[in-house]
């Protein structure tokens, strides 16, 4: 069952008039997050003139924040694009299905609610006690892709942030034997959808703080009864520990994702090691016998982005 609703009010985000949301520190945080989203959009060519961006909103802090920031950025963007908020009601027990429509109405954004009982499918198919997330996400992905086509979306925006990307990198390295993270922009296997992650440069800490200040009507993410993946939990704890003990380390890892040097890894598919000879160009300098020089405070991602910058 689907419900399509056109906006009933202008879709500008107004910060509610409370003290905390008008405080200088909150306004600075909001500006910082908007700048980071603007940078990511420009760096990866995420949104173009005439795009229809379907923003997937689960009811968690990340997707609420993504929607707010995209709406605010659209007000000052040099291009025109449409935003459609989308929520998939998976019929999990206790899912408060009135919350998101009411929120979307209150901010006047065009939205679509899709109701599909994937909860039942997952419960029927997966034996009790086994983890349900992979089937659940596969089903959800299919429905999101189909809905994107139906609304005429040219981009699907997801609320994954910088720390999700780093967690995925370590998950793949520790448990999958791969150096692979979560891309800021990708095309789906069937080539029908382009997925973007505009929060790619935003830290989870900042998003948490922003979402608290905005007092979003957060919907708990454990309604399905599934536990968070134990390995992801472990990685998250490791990264949080690093972040508190070694400030700057997480920023540096995020920067590293943008500075890959194939000739200094070991993947023969990325770099032709077999044919390395004395005439091979040395791109990154030869430090065979020396320790690499590490710049102090490495990790800045500040890049000029012109008028996308708030
Ligand atoms: S936590 Fe629940 S809703 Fe989320 S992917 Fe896993 S099974 Fe699906």
TrEMBL record:
Q: Explain how, and how many, cofactor molecules are bound.
A: Binds 1 [4Fe-4S] cluster per subunit. The cluster is chelated by three Cys residues, the fourth Fe has a free coordination site that may bind a sulfur atom transferred from the persulfide of IscS.
Task: Give the binding site residues for [4Fe-4S] cluster.
Answer: 133, 136, 224
Give the SUPFAM superfamilies listed for this entry: Adenine nucleotide alpha hydrolases-like (SSF52402)
Q: In which pathway does it act?
A: tRNA modification
Q: Where, by residue number, is the motif PP-loop motif?
A: 58-63
Task: List the protein's name.
Answer: tRNA-cytidine(32) 2-sulfurtransferase
CDD domains referenced in this protein's UniProt entry, alphabetically: TtcA-like
Family statement: Belongs to the TtcA family.
Location relative to the cell: Cytoplasm
- Keyword flag Metal-binding: yes
Q: A Gene Ontology CC term for this entry?
A: cytoplasm
Q: Which HAMAP family match?
A: TtcA
Say if the entry is tagged with keyword Coiled coil. Answer: no
Q: What one GO molecular function would you report for this record?
A: 4 iron, 4 sulfur cluster binding
| tRNA(Ile)-lysidine/2-thiocytidine synthase N-terminal domain segment(s) | 53-213
Record GO biological process: tRNA thio-modification
Q: Which gene carries the instructions for this protein?
A: ttcA
Spell out the reaction equation it catalyses: cytidine(32) in tRNA + S-sulfanyl-L-cysteinyl-[cysteine desulfurase] + AH2 + ATP = 2-thiocytidine(32) in tRNA + L-cysteinyl-[cysteine desulfurase] + A + AMP + diphosphate + H(+)
Tell me which InterPro entries the record gives: Rossmann-like_a/b/a_fold, TilS/TtcA_N, tRNA_Cyd_32_2_STrfase, tRNA_thiolation_TtcA_Ctu1
What does this protein need as cofactor? [4Fe-4S] cluster; Mg(2+)
What keywords is this UniProt entry annotated with? 4Fe-4S, ATP-binding, Cytoplasm, Iron, Iron-sulfur, Magnesium, Metal-binding, Nucleotide-binding, RNA-binding, Transferase, tRNA processing, tRNA-binding
> Assembly and partners?
Homodimer.
What is the source species? Zoogloea ramigera
What else the UniProt entry mentions is: The thiolation reaction likely consists of two steps: a first activation step by ATP to form an adenylated intermediate of the target base of tRNA, and a second nucleophilic substitution step of the sulfur (S) atom supplied by the hydrosulfide attached to the Fe-S cluster.
Biological classification of the source: Bacteria, Pseudomonadati, Pseudomonadota, Betaproteobacteria, Rhodocyclales
